[in-house]
Amino acid sequence: MLRRGGAIALFTGLMFATLTTPPALADDVRGGQQPVIRTLELTRAWQTSKGTGVTVAVLDSGVDPRHRDLAGSVRVGRDFTEGANPPGVAPNRLHGTYMASLIAGHGHGSGGKLGIIGVAPEADVLSVRVILEDEEPGFREFNSAERFENVVARGIRYAVDEGADVINMSISKELATREERAAIRYAISKGVVLVAAAGNDGDRKIDGDFAPYSYPAAFPGVVSVGATDRRLRRATFSNWNSSVLVAAPGVDIMGAGPGDEYWVGRGTSQATALVSGVAALIKAKFPDMSPPLVARALAESATDRPPGGYDTGTGFGIVNAAKALAEAGKLAGHTETATGAQAQDPTAPLAGGRAGPVKVIVRDEKLVTVYAAIAAAAAVGALASLAVIFILVRRVRRAHSSQDA
């Protein structure tokens, strides 16, 4: 795990191991992905959506556009770290390539049956470099120079303006800034789904009640993702607090690395990329679906739900791509307008003697509950006006008492 002085941390995972002779073992890579494919029910989900037409911005350390499992799917965007490395030094792009492959890898060979298959294999990737890896010579400069302080906020706005539908942020800061909050508000106002890692500090307890909050994951409106282990329980390193909305597999996850290599690792980074892929599947099928409804589809359809329906370790449960698409299909029928007579007098005609459409706000208690979960998680300590938020907070606290910390 890398740390950025004022607080940026890149979740490279607690363990990385390169696979030997990756070209010869490329077929074994797909076999190694089977646990994730089964858990997320991707084979069934792909019958409905593969992410066609969707762009996922990967705000990370850069993506290798020439990797055979990503070739043709990556557009290299801005490098907001420019000037940190000495002139002529090429970025490593390990972490970013790894994340991009989990989101939109399409494999290679006959029928794309070799190598990494991402959750949304027909989606496009926009690479936005907002962080350096610790092996890069400019890492210290990047962490200390004031001019790099708001690279994440700038990267979010850039991705939105470049047409991203989903933004994956397998990165974290310990402190929030106004610029980042404003950038996230801007993204959501444009219909962009934001997904971020809950963090890998699960062994750090704050007053014994929860693990540290991470940003941008803990901002209102961002889908905060925790990681599960092989038994689909909260991974010990995964942050547990009320910002966590959902979880996904985060241990022994196969992914691609620069230069046609393959890697296996663990972390909330990997879990986040998988959830971003599911969000891409939803946006491809329902392009006009708002970020809050996408978040609800992810949460409402989650499997392995904790006792009581929610806990601080895995949120509402483990994301399931097939079920999330089905839930999104139900939500797609919701509308903010309905046809009916005028609200003040159902029998009164409109001007000209015709009955006509009237604005009706659709109210949905479950939807409000999910909104409340996101808001309460991201604004800990803030007073909320809806009673349901207080109910949810009480539920989270009860669930914590049985949490495997």
TrEMBL record:
Signal peptide from the UniProt entry: 1-26
Name of this protein: S8 family serine peptidase
Domain Peptidase S8/S53, first and last residues per copy: 51-317
Gene3D superfamilies from the UniProt entry: Peptidase S8/S53 domain
Keywords: Hydrolase, Membrane, Protease, Serine protease, Signal, Transmembrane, Transmembrane helix
Protein's UniProt keywords contain DNA repair: no
Entry annotation: catalytic residues: D60 (charge relay system), H95 (charge relay system), S269 (charge relay system)
Source organism per UniProt: Nonomuraea marmarensis
Spans through the membrane: 370-393
Superkingdom of origin organism: Bacteria
InterPro entries to which the protein is assigned, alphabetical: Peptidase_S8/S53_dom, Peptidase_S8/S53_dom_sf, Peptidase_S8_Asp-AS, Peptidase_S8_subtilisin-like, Peptidase_S8_subtilisin-rel
Protein family per UniProt: Belongs to the peptidase S8 family.
